[in-house]
Amino acid sequence: MKVSLITATYNSEATIEDCMLSVLNQTYPNIEYIIVDGGSDEKTLKYLNEAAEKHSNIILSSEPDQGIYDALNKGIAKATGEIVGFVHSDDFLADPSIISAIVEAFKAQEVDGVYGDLHYVALENTAKIIRNWVSEPFDHRLLRQGWMPAHPTLYVKRDLYKKYGVFDLNYRIAADYDFILRIFKQPNLKFHYLPKTIVKMRVGGASNKSLKNILQKSKEDYRAIKTNKIGNWFTVLLKNVSKLKQFKS
């Protein structure tokens, strides 16, 4: 099974090397690596172009976009793999065998999607875990309780994007949650929880940079919940409260 991994980047020279090496060092042999750059400065583009020249499995494009979800949608449009996943430019895959483990889960469980656990790590010291997002096996009742898998750990069959659509650009922060609700509510789809840390994410994502962004995220979460007919404001509250247990004491 070919796996398409997509990275959206914009002036990410401080972290893009760790991100790319975590993909390029995977033991799984059939990876298509799509890098969608938003029109970065000369330094970042120089690094990306040099990497693309060295590695034949890298597909690189660079042009202005409307934000990360637009960039990810462009990556999905370029993808030819049976499985699609994302490695954001500030993140990196937890170990070199993780894609092999994900593919094995797809084959063994005969599912439409696989997800796992995520570590939020310190910006400068990535060995320091700030939050430990441990997921659980999926049950449809969890959606009304504000549950979702960590989106960077979610790998799905590419056909799901064709059938259920890509990221809705009307959401500035919560397009990933809207997409997750859209597919996880489908009774005919099967998802498998892989109890492994799949991604390490540096703290400071768009959705939790400030109180203003947290409020914006909650409003967008509520809109996604109502659009997908999943729950109400109590669902949003439970979604936010559930994050508290993830922080390391």
Question: Can you put this structure into words, describing what you see?
Answer:
The chain is α/β, with parallel strands linked by helices. It is built from eight helices and nine strands. Strands 1, 2, 3, 4, 5, 6, 7, 8 and 9 form a nine-stranded mixed beta sheet that branches. Helix 2 (about 40-55) links the parallel strand 2 and strand 3 (about 60). Helix 6 packs parallel to helix 7 (about 210-225). The N and C termini lie far apart (about 40 Å).
Low-pLDDT segments, ≥5 res: none
Which radius of gyration do the C-alpha atoms yield? Answer: 17 Å
The chain-level structural class is: alpha/beta
Instruction: Quote the average pLDDT.
Output: 94
Query: Number of DSSP strands?
Result: 9
Rounded to the nearest angstrom, the distance between the terminal CA atoms is 40 Å
Strand percentage lies at 15-25%
